[in-house]
Amino acid sequence: MARETTYGRHIIRSMKISGEWNARAFRGKVAVGIVHSGATEEAAILAAKAAIDASHAVQRAARGPDGFPTAVEVRAALAAISITDGQSAMLRAHLLAPESIMTATELATAGGYDSYVSANSQYGALGRKLAEELEWNPPAFNGVPTWTFALATGADGDSRADMEAMGYEQWRWKLRPEVAEALNN
């Protein structure tokens, strides 16, 4: 029976096969990378951890100047998180909207929600799951993260003052290009 070691968002499963220790990282049920072997269980696990760290370093180096994850990272993260039907409908509509721009009210309609408040809550919840999976922190206003920034940016500005001046229900969100690319592939 395989033993499990938690390493960040990964589980490393290790077991002895034919006198040699093997370890492999998993993200949920999905295997990540190759099987690493070692003379000891610790050596095999350390090799798997080093491979995870090296992969993360490559991903972080490929990020843009604002530090937002690449489309490849976003695609993997979207596959790893749970998305409700309403959240999925909002994402699809946002992707297909002209210039990928929609108001909070339009997103609510697309997701089947009665008001922009409900849509903001759901889109924000999805953004939070995505941001946490990506290990990325969105901008915070008054110490509170605006999770939707994991999915989109402000089409007319990115500050809380911009949101308040425009009015939250008419606030225009532009789907991040990395998210659009991830959804298209």
Can you put this structure into words, describing what you see?
The protein has 185 residues and is α+β, with helices and mostly antiparallel strands. The chain folds into 2 domains: 3-62, no CATH class; 71-184, no CATH class. The chain contains 7 helices and 9 strands; from the N terminus they run ββββαααβααβββαβα. The strands form 3 sheets. A 4-stranded antiparallel β-sheet has the order 1-2-3-4, covered by helices on one side. A hairpin with a 2-residue loop joins strand 3 (20-27) and strand 4. Helix 3 (85-96) packs across helix 4. The radius of gyration is 20 Å and the shape is elongated. The model has no long low-confidence stretch (mean pLDDT 90).
Could you list the spans in which at least 5 consecutive residues all have pLDDT below 50? none
Which radius of gyration do the C-alpha atoms yield?
A: 20 Å
End-to-end Cα distance: 37 Å
What general form does the structure show?
elongated
- The count of domains is 2
H/E element sequence: EEEEHHHEHHEEEHEH
Question: If helices are DSSP runs of H or I spanning 4 or more residues, what is the number of helices?
Answer: 7
Please state the average pLDDT score.
Answer: 90
Overall helicity: 40-55%
Q: Which strands sit side by side, in order, in the main sheet? A: 1-2-3-4
